[in-house]
């Protein structure tokens, strides 16, 4: 009893402390809300207090024209030092004020209009704004006797160049990928969609990281309700920090316990642009090349951007191949187990004899054998991803031995099973979205169990449970299995086939009232024009 | 309302299709063949009349009480006490019917594929899977129907195409050798299945596009009729005069499929896909039962009674018959009268009383006015 009481007390104390901490944070916030004073020294004192023990923050004090005191505050490495020298310090310090103007005070506007050779300048009035700008990499210029400072757009953080995304390569199509810089990513989008209707709303997420997150959409195409829902869900996030869009993804998903991703992530600007044109909303985050797209359906996770760049017939065939291999990646090992355990009669006799002969040496039942090898395969895949590049070759050699001849000779696995495992592995990589592929790969383990206990019936029951689960999922209000269930006649042509572009006359139905649905002009099907075709051969000859 | 989901009329039609087909293609062809011989393909045509009648009655009742299921409006029509009694009859019937469906399925699977698996495990796993679907409401069952029905239809068509080499058209002749009576007699059993269309009384209140409800109900009946006729013809062509000696003629016919010595013995795959149909059937019956019970007991939510009901269904499946022989005998003899009197007779009575009361009310109003 006594112990309990004590622990209760402790809890209460912890609670009180929490409250105090909160109060402290609040008071700090209030302090930072304070406006800048006209006294430069006081402002500097305040900022130096805030940036105590931050050796990367530079406070450069100088005098404008040898008269007025001023200070430039920036973070070393984030700001472009050469431009600070050339565009700010040189013109201001070399200015000979006394000759031209006898006035004691300098007008802020004069400096802005005549001296600063910097294109992007923003006025800041409060300490909070100052800190925001400095931490964002923009130097802040404070001048004595002025109650406002200038934030100079001279930030120059380290950037990677634009490269082709490794996870989503294409044979035909644009080869640029997003980078870690938000500005670059937005510019990539803007270069594809030039209309001013492309909007980008910014919010800050993360108590300490203060990460910039941008909601992008095309006004007039994206439903207003959808945009509001995305904003509401993003505004609800209260975290210390977000380092990758997957943090956001997990926090705004409809059903976080599902193995299936309900939000698309991509590194490709063309995928995002195409989604925006369909009325979806993109969420970009500073510091990661992965952009989220909502809402999505299961079928859109099975589509590659290249489907739309290839000829429509070829893409249709590719899609069906992908659907077939999706089933293979989910079901092949369990079918192997089910058939060998319960339904041997399904195999043609010759094949059955071969398999039986190769399984003669194996001490395990088919269920154990399949589980073992599938787990080994998953481990090899994981190891291949994580190992340092220099060790990669070693893994592939060992892997070839483990899942291969050596395993068969050691009598641990049969040759047909090795085939099954290899085929399953290949099949799971035909799914263009890694997250969707991995969900199905993981689900095949319970399926193997079901196959080992109830045979084909178990597989079917497992499949029905999976489909039931998928039918309950929604991604921002859009049923996960649409347009198949609930069926939407107009959009099936983008699932069962990849219709030619002149067939896509309407935008997909997502949420809301779906008013602005016309996507393109009608009757764009090309064909020989027998009327007044000037380029045709017959007329050219005459 | 307890159920907040909405389905489309097309989804309702698609839900009903496997609900009738799934068990009808199992035992019915043999029972029909016993009475109708080579005219067995005609029997579904006559039987479907009951289906159309059931849909008609249900839709008319639905028009009178658009927001309510049959459990709710039977109270409005017959008064509190009698209405509750009628509701109880329906609920008990659906509990029993559900048990029989599960039993048919279990007997079939254990008898043909999983010889060493206990019957209760096979039946229990199905009830569990279905309870998962029922938990998520009518919307999800509707979506599942849209995923499953195309597969079921493709399965039936492909099987019939693969059986073409084994077909003997002469098995069909002479058509109507002994007049129309044998086929009419043979239609009595399928009538019991067609009367199951009463289930739309539980779905119609949640259909979003109400005016299409009747149309899709009728389309569904026609589709079931066509499918059953087609299956009966195919079975007749393959098996001929001995059809009635098989317990599951359609599946016995599938065993004949053998293309190029490779594509043979596909009955396990056929069974697996057929399980999807049974899943739909049990889910719809289960849903009607659970929803009806919740409404009958004035519960706020039907979810808490799903698992207890599932357990009860499993028990009823075990109790419903001592053996497959008894089950087939019951289905082939007394069951259609029981099923039709509850699923067509009582609704018809309700409709008459409702109409009569409305007329009486109108007269009263005109007299007062």
TrEMBL record, chain A:
Q: Which residues form the signal peptide?
A: none
For bias type Low complexity, the affected ranges are 19-30
Question: Which Pfam families did the record assign?
Answer: GerA
Where is the stretch described as Disordered? 1-30, 511-542
Per UniProt, the keywords (alphabetical) are:
Membrane, Transmembrane, Transmembrane helix
Where is this chain compositionally biased, Basic residues type? 1-18
> Mind telling me which residue stretches traverse the membrane in this protein?
320-342, 417-436, 448-471
Gene Ontology CC: membrane
Please note every region of biased composition (Basic and acidic residues).
Answer: 531-542
One Gene Ontology BP term is: spore germination
Q: Which domain of life is it from?
A: Bacteria
InterPro entries (UniProt xref): Spore_Ger (IPR004995), UPF0353/GerABKA_families (IPR050768)
Q: Which family does it belong to?
A: Belongs to the GerABKA family.
This chain belongs to the protein called Spore germination protein GreKA
**Organism for this UniProt entry:** Parageobacillus caldoxylosilyticus NBRC 107762
Automatic annotation (TrEMBL), chain B:
The family database entries (InterPro entries) matched by this protein are listed as: Spore_GerAB
| Main subcellular location | membrane
Where is the chain membrane-spanning? Answer: 43-61, 81-101, 113-132, 144-164, 188-207, 219-242, 268-293, 305-325, 337-354
Gene Ontology cellular component terms for the protein in this record:
membrane
Q: How does it sit in the membrane?
A: Multi-pass membrane protein
Superkingdom assignment? Bacteria
Protein's GO biological process:
spore germination
Localization: Membrane
**Family as reported in the entry's similarity comment:** Belongs to the amino acid-polyamine-organocation (APC) superfamily. Spore germination protein (SGP) (TC 2.A.3.9) family.
Q: What is this protein called?
A: Spore germination protein GreKB
This protein's species is Parageobacillus caldoxylosilyticus NBRC 107762
